[in-house]
Amino acid sequence: MKIKTLLIANRGEIACRIARTARASGITPVGVHSEADANALHVREIGHSVCVGAGPASESYLKIDAVIAAAQSVGADAIHPGYGFLAENPDFARAVEAAGMIFMGPTPQTLERFGDKASAKEAAVAAGVPVISGAEGARSDPRQIAAEVREMGLPVLLKAVGGGGGRGQRLVTDEATLVEDIEGALREAKSTFGSEGLLLERFLPEARHVEVQIAGDGKGHVVHLFERDCTLQRRHQKVIEEAPAWGLPRTLLDDIAHDAVRLGETLDYRGLGTVEFLVAGEEYFFLEVNPRIQVEHPVTEAITGLDLVALHLRIAEGAGLGLVQDDLAISGHAVEARLYAEDPAMQFAPSTGTLTTLSLPDGLRIDSGVEEGDAVTPFYDPMIAKLIVHAPDRETALARLATALDHVAVEGVQTNRAFLTALARDPEFEQMQVHTRWIDGRLDELTQAGSLARPELWKAAAAVLFVATSRRDLCADPWTNRDSFTGWRLGLGGDAIEAGQRVTLTDSGGASEELRVGPVKHKDRYTVLSETGDAATLTAREIKPGRWRLSEGDTVHHINARLHAGVIEMDTPEGRLVFRPAAPLDFAGGDVAADRAVASPLTGMIVEIKVAEGQTVAEGDVIAIMESMKLEISIRAAAAGIASNISVSNGDMVDRGQVIAEILAPEE
């Protein structure tokens, strides 16, 4: 059956990605959106979208009836679920088929088999695929789980049977936190996946994560599109993915791929899927099956030359795979980095806000679901973009990725850009001397701000460009003194640091400094004094709109720069830098009492209040647990004292910065 109209039951970058291939295939794409996404990029790019409910996913993208009704209203022949949301929901697949439309994914029976990790493990055992040892079946009784964990011996990994994307996993390493870990895993499993069932498995401390992309026609013909390495993870969530898996014997990888294909063949697998494994030494173990398209599918597309969405459409139309295993070969090496709106300084908590600046580099593939001016809301995954590099070899691919990340600029939210850059240049990662827990053991080192070779030069340049850009449109220049202009006259007789125009700059790391910028008797030439008294003399000339010639002595740099949305953005040889200029009064000292106000770090829902009114708390005690963008965050006291004025309850939605309690100083 030829698909004419395709409803894309998703949002963000994957919705945009599917729509592009649909159009190229002669298919009309139609989107869906929540009220919060009414102006989202996927709505604008697809051009025709149907609202399916309110902002929270449970009231929109996860509403099966609303999505089916939207598809019927536009006469859709098929529905593509993307990844996440309803992609692995067998009830949704049944509803799509019952409505006479094509579900672009496996059969409902396959989704049931692989959607539950316990049954997926049973299927792997039946197919002769090696699995990780542990307790058989799922558990939901906390006391039974605790007893079996103690019997197995620590460390033990708790995994929600319905989990995915790194969610619903807790590593138990300490008897002292066993009860807390079990309660948290059960709570997360229920709130995220609707089931409290947990698997208990032996933990492999230094394993690599290797996954195999498979495609099947639903009639027993299954091929693999080689493997991806997703070892770089933070708390079980993938950070950087690549293909092929570098540094492992091809014979081992071929064995893994053959097992993945055999597992797919046992169920007459239909559509795209990913079979995930852990590799420890010369052994490998089945982990799970993701019966859908993956976030990291672009690296497979890069090394195979295939369009996986086009292949998916072909399968859905009943035309088969159109290829056999011998048609496939690996070309070069591809790496993908996930750029997220999250704050590494706050344990990678999601960061919400408006993207006042979003500049992404040229020369590589970028899949994104947002543009400059769009908002990152608390309702959905905070991904900004995926940066994908394809090169002849891994060394070149990593170098190009690092350079590309240098030239990313985002303002309005915090991001993991610097963290990704540190990973791309890390010597141990370059040699693949890593495992799935490697990042977690080096977070402090990897999240330290990277150092620039000439930080003072670029800060001085930003101050000069701010003054020069701000001046050029003034009709009356208060600095002018006959045919040249000099700010030094304003400070005549005083300390040099007090002369010149005051410019306070805040860099992307939050560090602020006040500089003095004063012109000298040469056109476009400025002297910049720092707070320490260090001076720099720069010449800044705009040679064409947005393009500046910056001279320091005999050294000349040509850079792109703009004053935009309240920031100075500069594309320099050391990367894309952003500074926020502001009036000095904006940085006046805050009220010391603020330390005693417990505020929400972001927008989200209060899951549990952990203290009572009048309770004595110590510095660092957990005051409340909140959930935002599917992440649980502990809000802690910044000072010791007495909990007071608790203004929220379990289940309340709170805004970023909202005070939820106060910690009164203990009486002397």
TrEMBL record:
Residues 121-317 form the ATP-grasp domain. SMART domains: Biotin_carb_C (SM00878). The keyword Ligase applies. The keyword ATP-binding applies. SUPFAM superfamilies: Glutathione synthetase ATP-binding domain-like, PreATP-grasp domain, Rudiment single hybrid motif, Single hybrid motif. Residues 2-444 form the Biotin carboxylation domain. One of its GO terms (molecular function) is ATP binding. Its cofactor is biotin. InterPro entries: ATP-grasp, BC-like_N, Biotin_carboxylase_complex, Biotin_carboxylation_dom, Biotin_COase_C, Biotin_lipoyl, CPAse_ATP-bd, PreATP-grasp_dom_sf. Keywords: ATP-binding, Biotin, Ligase, Nucleotide-binding. PANTHER family: CARBOXYLASE:PYRUVATE/ACETYL-COA/PROPIONYL-COA CARBOXYLASE, METHYLCROTONOYL-COA CARBOXYLASE SUBUNIT ALPHA, MITOCHONDRIAL-RELATED. This is 3-methylcrotonyl-CoA carboxylase alpha subunit. It comes from Salipiger aestuarii. The lineage of its organism: Bacteria, Pseudomonadati, Pseudomonadota, Alphaproteobacteria, Rhodobacterales.
